[in-house]
Write a structure and sequence with these properties.
By secondary structure, the chain is mainly α. It contains five helices and no strands. The radius of gyration is 13 Å and the shape is globular. It starts with a helix and ends with a helix.
Length: 70
């Protein structure tokens, strides 16, 4: 994938988009945008390049959202 991954996140084929979103070589700014987009967040959160502190914030936000529903 590599540098072309940024362009492939908008590919019309779901398989290509999903593979691009999970590519650890995706630029950080693109990955951050995908994490904030409801349509791509579920796939983007599986990207192994997400820094641990960011994952902690995501998990904390999810836990807060779940607790608020109870």
């Amino acid at each position: 994938m590599g540098a072309g991954s940024s362009a492939r996140v908008n590919d019309p084929e779901a398989y290509v988009r999903g593979t691009a979103v999970r590519d650890p070589r995706l630029p950080a700014r693109v990955l951050a945008g995908l994490l904030h987009d409801r349509d791509t967040a579920c796939a983007a959160v599986t990207n192994p390049a997400i820094p641990v502190p960011v994952l902690h914030r995501i998990l904390a936000a999810a836990a807060t959202a779940v607790a608020a529903r109870r």
